[in-house]
Structure to design on (458 residues):
């Protein structure tokens, strides 16, 4: 795209404004994308948390397995030693129940084998199991000595596979018991137990290291994803704030301004979104046509032919449409106007009336309405004016009489008396003229050439 085209597009955007519809579509798309990102991030965060929980559970399972292997080995040792000392068959039964039925050592190996990441721990456990099984041969031999010494006939048949050495077979019962006890309590036996414990300690250390490494890795991932969720929340919050600001700037603010302008009977500013600017332009066209039609519609029917001011018909129409809450009515009577007609003639009197209307139009705004009610009686509707503007209205009355006193145009000096009332002082439009007339009478009684505001009777 050329620079000229870019410049043209930028100028068009400044003129037409941003499309609120298009902006909302983009903001909705962004909000959907951010929401999707939020869902994805929270799903990832939840997945990582679940993985972390699973990893902790698995490592607890591994630790229990290593503990089971060591506990099972110690359990076998304890029952073998007790049997050799006491000859109580219950200890032998406990021993073989663990060795042949419970098999906690073998089950522990199966559990650890199910975790591919625990290779090193599994290796140490298998070495410990091998050492434990080697120790069992010594325990079998000692229990076989006790069985022979005590003449026990009900024993596990696996002991039949144990052959006593010739020198041991010929020993007496007490000597066999002593030999069995020595076999399970000597340094060689405990050295083997220490070897098993060392292997299990190493296995446990491998499990702890694996647990720590896995938890650290998942924790780092958890922290990263938590930061990502925070970032998405910040982005989503920014999008919400942007939507609020853009909606306010492009939609709400222009509508509020337009409402104030419409209330004040003014055109709407061309601002805000593209859609609102379109409405404002068309409203202003209609407003201009309306103002033009008001100015021309039934002009002769509503205006005084001599002075161009609104006539009695126009006055009645205006009275029915004004806002009493924001309007002053000024009822004006020319002082001693009959004397001008009698002294200078009706032609001069007509010119004096035209001058009065011209002075009134000069001192009031274009939005205000000047009316000739008949003869030398006039009325002015000063609109969009609050009651606290009394001093302004009084100053206008003074300026009007000052300008009417000027005779540089060849016309005799004139003055007016003005009765003034604000629309908030009456409840009915019909009372507006009556109350203004009371104020006019008051100023005429006090010497004319001035103004008086209507004062409500106590």
């Amino acid at each position: 795209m050329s620079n000229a085209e870019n410049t043209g597009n930028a100028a068009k955007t400044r003129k037409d404004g941003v499309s609120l519809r298009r902006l909302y579509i983009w903001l909705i798309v962004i909000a959907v994308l951010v929401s999707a990102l939020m869902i994805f991030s929270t799903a990832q965060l939840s997945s990582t948390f679940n993985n972390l929980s699973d990893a902790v559970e698995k490592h607890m399972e591994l630790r229990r397995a290593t503990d089971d292997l060591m506990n099972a080995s110690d359990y076998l040792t304890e029952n073998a030693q007790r049997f050799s000392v006491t000859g109580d068959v219950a200890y032998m039964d406990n021993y073989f129940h663990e060795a042949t039925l419970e098999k906690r050592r073998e089950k522990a190996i199966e559990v650890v084998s199910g975790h591919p990441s625990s290779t090193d721990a599994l290796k140490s456990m298998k070495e410990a199991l091998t050492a434990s099984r080697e120790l069992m041969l010594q325990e079998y031999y000692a229990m076989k000595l006790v069985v022979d010494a005590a003449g026990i006939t009900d024993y596990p048949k696996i002991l039949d596979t144990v052959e006593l050495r010739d020198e041991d077979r010929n020993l007496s019962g007490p000597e066999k018991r002593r030999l069995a006890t020595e076999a399970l309590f000597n340094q060689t036996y405990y050295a083997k137990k220490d070897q098993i414990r060392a292997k299990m300690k190493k296995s446990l250390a491998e499990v702890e290291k694996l647990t720590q490494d896995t938890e650290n890795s998942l924790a780092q991932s958890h922290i990263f994803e938590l930061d990502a969720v925070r970032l998405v929340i910040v982005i989503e919050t920014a999008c919400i704030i942007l939507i609020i600001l853009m909606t306010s700037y492009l939609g709400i603010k222009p509508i509020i301004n337009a409402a104030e302008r419409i209330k004040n009977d003014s055109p709407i500013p061309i601002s805000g979104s593209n859609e609102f600017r379109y409405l404002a332009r068309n409203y202003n066209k209609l407003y201009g046509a309306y103002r033009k039609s008001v100015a021309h519609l039934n002009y002769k029917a509503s205006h005084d032919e001599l002075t161009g001011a609104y006539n009695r018909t126009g006055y009645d129409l205006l009275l029915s449409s004004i806002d009493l809450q924001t309007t002053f009515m000024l009822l004006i009577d020319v002082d001693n106007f009959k004397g001008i007609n009698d002294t200078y003639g009706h032609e001069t009197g007509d010119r004096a009336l035209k001058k009065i209307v011209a002075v009134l139009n000069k001192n009031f705004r274009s939005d205000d309405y000047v009316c000739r009610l008949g003869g030398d009686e006039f009325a002015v509707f000063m609109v969009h004016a609050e009651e606290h503007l009394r001093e302004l209205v009084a100053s206008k009355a003074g300026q009007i009489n000052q300008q009417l006193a000027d005779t540089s145009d060849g016309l005799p000096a004139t003055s007016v008396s003005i009765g003034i009332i604000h629309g908030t002082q009456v409840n009915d439009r019909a009372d507006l003229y009556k109350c203004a007339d009371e104020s006019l009478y008051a100023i005429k009684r006090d010497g004319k050439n001035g103004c008086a505001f209507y004062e409500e009777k106590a």
Notes: The first strand starts at residue 328 and ends at 334. The radius of gyration is 56 Å. Strands lie at 328-334, 369-374, 377-382, 416-422, 450-453.
